[in-house]
Design brief:
The complex is a heterodimer of chains A (492) and B (778). With 492 residues, chain A is an alpha+beta fold. Chain A has 17 helices and 21 strands. Chain A folds into 4 domains: 3-87 and 172-242, Ubiquitin-like (UB roll) (Roll); 90-166, DNA polymerase, domain 1 (Orthogonal Bundle), CATH 1.10.150; 252-360, Uridine Diphospho-n-acetylenolpyruvylglucosamine Reductase, domain 3, CATH 3.30.465; 366-478, CO dehydrogenase flavoprotein, C-terminal domain (Enolase-like, domain 1). Among the domains of chain B are: 141-391, Aldehyde Oxidoreductase, domain 4 (2-Layer Sandwich); 464-601, Aldehyde Oxidoreductase, domain 4, CATH 3.30.365.10. The chains are: A alpha+beta (492), B alpha+beta (778).
């Protein structure tokens, strides 16, 4: 193997990472090393967005500008990207359009969240296509502002993003693309020493070998979970194996009857494919974390970390997803639900990694609904998330897969509720009630700061009734505060 | 004057150039470029050390033994500080002496500071702080209001005021209702957490950069802890990344700890709390239980109110005296209460010490009263707005429970009436009734609620301010005052006032960091008073310099000083006109002083707490809001559909900044009453100690249909350019959201009192649904 240092583009110069600890965050590097203090630390857990920076990458031959939370993004993950921060936007002849709009609309008060907001809007503008208010709100869901009440910020975004970007980045895109293309050389990258390293293998074979040799190494994908173990739990993580450069793991295969996500496909990239399966999945994914989190966090990571809530897992279990794991040369495929053994314990051996996730598409006669319940609609971890897939034979339920997050130590199916549906007419309210009444047989939820056990069960029952009622034809405008988006591919 | 901009006129009728105009925040261009410097961004002096705190692992205990040797042995550690290292007093409290900097024996809340680690890096300090071995004999903590009641524990004596015989009147009243209402607290969640950088100087001097709303208190506490005179301590702050009351008394501990570390190590020391530590270790808005009884007639006219306020203050008094007093002062909301008793308890618990938070107790008092009015309306089957209007202060019904006459109640009344019309309340009320009649799952609600907020510190001595203005011989102006900038635009407003006074361009006025070295003995920037007090002090200072410049000009070019005009960046005297800079230079050559310290004290205010009577407020700021919501009665989820706001800012100093305060305050109140829930467990640990678990509003929580208007009538009192304070009152506009949710739920069981507590989380809403309907329906 040919090892080279991790390297990224910064203000026109190539930075080769050396003499930093492998768990150094991008934010610490910016503020403490480079002394670029425009980017702020608000929470150090990827929630408030004050640390938002943009990573520009070449993807499928096109430049993409993605916002990430620098506070939990590890420096090594910047390999192959251009790192853009708030100091880089203004040009000699004045402020960047997103900055100018923000000043004109009186969008800053204390100013501490503003750098992050500027970067989110910069990324939004570079996405192109004049975003509407919903798209702006979605782009800002990961940027907390405690002063303004957001109205002027949203107006600044609508104003600035109605025009195509014409800034130093758009103007030099061709030359930057060449530089970034050259960085993507397919070689393995690495920094540190044998005791403390950041390894970025480019192939699955090397990845397997490293994991075999150092089975206790921390597998890193988007760092939206591992990052908090570093900044909050202060875990002394020393050996990191990052999947972000592994060729093939980032592939999405959109097959006629299923979508197969490589483990490092980010939520942002998975979103349109999931939404094409069912609009509820799109709605759920837009409320999943924030744009920053979705740009970094991965489908594989969300499953592999075994969160009892992990919104994706219950939805994919209901759809009948399977996962493929690899250890050395051994591959195995299991149903997703059997991966979760108990709280924070999964069916994964040391040195084994999750390789891909296959999500079956809905077939004729199959209906799907998914409801995410949280204290705050956007950027909040669910109190409970319920997903229901029903196969109908006429009006009768032929098969049902129901799964919830937040109701047990793991994302889990609801066999009693499923059984209560089989053979009964979806059109009858009694069927819905019978399924809801069976749920307490499936779960013994906990009380915590998100919700009490009682509320969790009530909400779980409520969304099951809603899902079934909607499948029976009740319009979602009468059952939900935010009606279901009708999608072209929905199997209605 | 700008060529295309019409002249506005002040009360004095002089043409104006800056005041009343929507100039951007002075730091706006810096904010958007990441060029505004916060304390953690200041280039660290060579050798700067970093401080982290060791925290109590339990909420209530005596320390049996604490072993800090492992901490000292940790790589990078330079020093470990405990109470024994404090040369002065181990006390960082604002007034009552009950907030130790480090625990000596008794742990009073989970996360309380036990010791500090000073290390070469922040990471080393944080890691080292975790390896102390702390042995305690823990007791069951007192966590809730009811725990404290059972123990009879308070931080300050009970206090009440009122008039008449409420028990008698209640017994006599044709109708009576009573109830209990719980109101949750609130985390400030300023985006910039608590931070201080202390730099030692010669002879034991110390310079402290602190993110504080109260530099003078930081100065005093640092001096107290280090046992040095106040004059040896300078506290400076250019800007905060948000304050909201959370950096009024609560910034001092971190500043004093950094100062102690600097004193002991002889090196600059920085302490920046991690967000989770910040949330676990600093006080919050007080949560309350309000027990109320109201008597009224068949029309809904209130005859008597008896309300008992139970405030959870936490482990120490902090600012709870004033906070809960302000709850009492606002327990009338906008309504005349002929016979009334307002009683309060300041309960002591093993939780963090609750503190100032935008509104300073007022919001809880007002919301409590709105709930009483709702109950009256529901009981009588009337629209709550009718009952609000019926009981609103008016002619001969204008004296508050604390004996202050509401002189401009017509303003509040006019706001209500105007908003009722412009928000089309009655039409929408009918539409909502029709919607609810055909919608079993989703229910709509609407509410229009008033705001009347008393302006002035109720501690009378705080109603003073100082400013320092220099005119340099090139005509540039140095502006300094005791107010601090936390995003509210105070610096820009005061700069507008000074530029106005001198008739010069804004860019002549250099805004400078607040420092105790320039303006001493200041009050906190709090109680919405920033521009009222500091704006006036700066005007006084600028006016004095201007007067001397005018006298010199009149002497030099003839005429009377009164006829000298300062405008358009020039000075007009007789037939002469010269540039402002030119006059400044000539004044200096002629040995005219171009520097002045201005001072201002608020007139008319007085408060006799023992007698429970007086005029604690110079004036009232008014507002009204109408909110419409839709509630999902199966899951308890809620959506805010439309908000109309009309708010009284007097004659606005800067309409854009004021609208920013109104919208920001409203959304902060919205968060308090809906998604922001503080959860302490039975062990007294805060479980919602990070933004992942504590949910402040995000952009999508704010409705697209948000209509905000200023009610621009000049303040009847002689405030700065007849403006009104605007910082806190808008928080209470969000009461309309809470009442709208209750209104939506009321449609499920007309005539019943809706048992909804704040915050109205989905769970709280569903619980109310269940109680109203006897079960959740599907």
């Amino acid at each position: 193997m040919s090892l080279r240092p991790v390297r990224f583009l910064r203000r026109g110069r190539l930075v080769e990472v050396a003499e930093v600890h492998p768990r150094t965050t991008l934010l610490d590097w910016l503020r403490l090393r480079e002394r670029s203090c425009g980017t702020k630390e608000g929470c150090a857990e990827g929630d408030c967005g004050a640390c938002t920076v943009v990573l520009a990458r070449l993807r499928d031959g096109r430049m993409v500008y993605e916002p990430v939370n620098a506070c939990i993004h590890l420096l090594g993950q910047c390999d192959g990207a251009e790192v853009i921060t708030v100091e880089d936007l203004a040009e000699a002849d004045g402020l960047h359009p997103v900055q100018q709009a923000m000043v004109e609309k009186h969008g800053s008060q204390c100013g501490f969240c503003t750098p992050g907001i500027m970067m989110s809007l910069f990324a939004l503008q570079h996405e192109g296509g004049a975003p509407d208010r919903d798209a702006v709100n979605e782009a800002l869901a990961g940027n907390l502002c405690r002063c303004t009440g957001y109205r002027p910020i949203v107006e600044a975004a609508l104003d600035a993003c109605s025009r195509s970007p014409s800034d130093r980045f758009s103007k030099t895109e061709a030359s930057t693309s060449k530089v970034l293309a050259a960085l993507d050389d397919g070689s393995d990258a690495w920094f540190g020493d044998p005791q403390a390293f950041f390894a970025a293998p480019a192939s699955e074979d090397l990845l397997s070998r490293i994991l075999e040799e150092t089975p206790d190494a921390t597998i890193l994908a988007g760092s939206t979970d591992v990052g908090l173990r570093i900044t909050k739990a202060l875990e002394p993580i020393e050996r990191i194996v990052w999947l972000g450069r592994v060729k093939g793991l980032d592939r999405v295969e959109d097959l006629p009857d299923a979508v197969v996500f490589g483990a490092t496909v980010t939520h942002a990239r998975a979103l349109p494919h999931l939404e094409a399966i069912d609009p509820d999945l799109g709605d759920m994914m837009r409320r999943f974390g924030s744009k920053q989190i979705r740009a970094a966090g991965t489908v594989g990571g969300n499953i592999a970390n075994g969160s009892p809530i992990g919104d994706l897992a219950p939805a994919l279990i209901a759809l009948g997803a399977t996962i493929e794991l690899r250890k050395a040369e051994r591959l195995r495929t299991i149903p997703l639900e059997s991966f979760f053994i108990e709280y924070r314990k999964q069916d994964r051996e040391p040195g084994e990694y999750l390789r891909r996730v296959a999500v079956p598409k809905l077939r004729p006669g199959e209906l799907f609904r998914c409801f995410k319940i949280s204290k705050r609609r956007d950027e909040d971890i669910s109190s409970t998330l319920g997903a229901v897939k029903v196969t109908l034979d006429g009006d009768l339920v032929a098969a049902a897969r129901i799964a919830y997050g937040g109701m047990a130590g793991t994302p889990k199916r609801a066999p009693a509720a499923e059984a209560a549906l089989i053979g009964r007419s979806i059109k009858q309210a009694a069927t819905w009630r019978a399924a809801a009444a069976a749920l307490p047989g499936d779960y013994r939820p906990l009380s915590d700061h998100r919700a009490s056990a009682r509320y969790r069960m009530q909400a779980a029952q409520a969304v099951l009734v809603k899902a079934l009622a909607e499948m029976a034809g009740l319009p979602s405008a009468s059952t939900r505060l935010h009606p279901r988006r009708e999608a072209s591919l929905a199997a209605e | 004057m700008q060529p295309n901009e019409p002249a506005s006129s002040s009360a004095e009728g002089i043409s104006l150039r800056h005041v009343h105009r929507s100039l951007p925040h002075d730091s706006a261009a810096k904010h958007v470029q990441g060029a505004a410097v916060y304390i953690d961004d200041i280039p660290e002096p060579e050798g700067t050390l970093h401080v982290a705190l060791g925290r109590a692992p339990v909420a209530r205990a005596r320390i049996v033994e604490i072993d800090l040797d492992p901490v000292r042995a940790h790589p990078g550690v330079v020093a470990v500080l405990t109470a024994a290292d404090i040369p002065g007093k181990n006390d960082v409290s604002p007034s009552f002496g009950d907030d130790p900097m480090f625990v000596e024996k008794e742990i009073l809340f989970h996360g309380q500071a036990l010791f500090a680690v000073v290390a070469t890096t922040r990471e080393a300090a944080r890691r080292a702080a975790l390896v102390a071995v702390v042995k305690t004999d823990a007791a069951k903590p007192s966590v809730t209001i009811e725990d404290a009641e059972a123990e009879g524990a308070t931080v300050l004596p009970d206090y009440a005021f009122g008039r008449g015989e409420p028990d008698l009147e209640l017994a006599r009243a044709p109708r009576r209702v009573e109830g209990t209402f719980r109101i949750g607290g609130q985390e400030h969640f300023y985006l910039e957490g608590q931070v201080a950088l202390a730099i030692p100087g010669e002879d034991g001097e110390i310079l402290v950069h602190s993110s504080t709303q109260h530099p003078t208190e930081v100065q005093h506490v640092v001096a107290r802890v280090l046992a040095i005179p106040d004059a040896f301590v300078t506290c400076e702050v250019r800007r905060m990344g948000g304050g909201f009351g959370g950096k009024e008394s609560q910034a001092t501990q971190w500043a004093a700890t950094a100062a102690l570390a600097a004193r002991i190590t002889g090196r600059p020391c920085k302490l920046r709390l991690d967000r989770d530590d910040d949330m676990a270790m600093t006080g919050k808005r007080h949560d309350f239980r309000v027990d109320w009884r109201v008597g009224f007639d068949e029309e809904g006219r209130i005859a008597a109110l008896d309300t008992r306020l139970h405030a959870r203050c936490g482990y120490s008094a902090d600012l709870s005296l004033g906070v809960v007093d302000r709850t009492m002062f606002h327990s009338d909301s906008s309504y005349f209460l002929p016979v009334v008793r307002i009683a309060s308890r300041r309960l002591k618990t093993n939780t963090v010490s609750n503190t100032a938070f935008r509104g300073f107790g007022g919001p809880q008092g007002m919301l409590g009263m709105e709930r009483v009015v709702d109950a009256v309306a529901w009981t009588l089957g009337r629209d709550p707005l009718d009952i609000r209007k019926l009981n609103h202060y008016g002619p001969d019904r204008d004296v508050t429970p604390y004996g202050m006459t509401v002189e401009d109640h017509d303003t509040g009344r006019l706001l209500l009436d105007t908003l009722e019309r412009t928000a089309e309340y009655r039409i929408r009320r009918a539409e909502i009734a029709a919607f609810n009649a055909r919608s079993p799952i989703l229910r709509k609600g609407i509410a229009l609620t008033p705001v009347k907020f008393g302006i002035s510190f109720t501690l009378t001595q705080l109603n003073q301010a100082g400013a320092l203005v220099h005119v340099y011989s090139d005509g540039s102006i140095h502006l300094n005052h005791g107010g601090t900038e936390m995003g509210q635009g105070l610096f820009q407003k005061v700069a507008q006032i000074v530029a106005e006074e001198f008739g010069v361009a804004m860019d002549r006025v250099r805004i400078t960091a607040t420092t105790t070295g320039k303006v001493p003995n200041t009050s906190p920037t709090a109680a919405s008073s920033g521009s009222d007090l500091n704006g006036m002090a700066a005007k006084v200072a600028a006016g004095a310099i201007k007067r001397r410049m005018a006298e010199y000009a009149a002497e030099e070019w003839g005429g009377s000083p009164d006829e000298v005009e300062f405008r358009e960046d020039r000075v007009f005297v007789g037939n002469e006109s010269l540039g402002f800079g030119e006059l400044a230079k000539r004044c200096h050559l002629a040995r005219v002083s171009l520097s002045e310290a201005g001072h201002y004290k608020t007139p008319k205010v007085s408060w006799n707490r023992a007698a429970g009577t007086g005029r604690p407020f110079y004036y009232f700021a008014y507002g009204a809001a109408c909110s419409e919501v839709t509630v999902d009665t199966m899951t308890g989820e809620m959506r805010l559909d439309r908000v109309d706001i009309l708010h009284d800012v007097g004659k606005s100093l800067n309409p854009a900044i004021d609208i920013g305060q109104i919208e920001g305050g409203f959304v902060q109140g919205l968060g308090w009453l809906t998604t922001e829930e503080l959860v302490f467990d039975a062990e007294g640990r805060l479980r919602t100690h990070a933004p992942s678990t504590y949910k402040i509003p995000v952009a999508s929580d704010v409705p697209a249909d948000l209509r905000v208007a200023l009610f621009q009538a000049p303040n009847r009192e002689e405030t700065i350019y007849r403006s009104k304070a605007v910082g806190e009152p808008p928080v209470m506009l969000a009461n309309s959201v809470f009442c709208a949710v209750a209104d939506a739920l009321h449609s499920l069981a007309p005539g019943q009192v809706v048992p909804l507590d704040a915050p109205a989380t989905p769970e709280a809403i569903l619980k109310a649904v269940e109680e109203l309907t006897g079960g959740v329906g599907f």
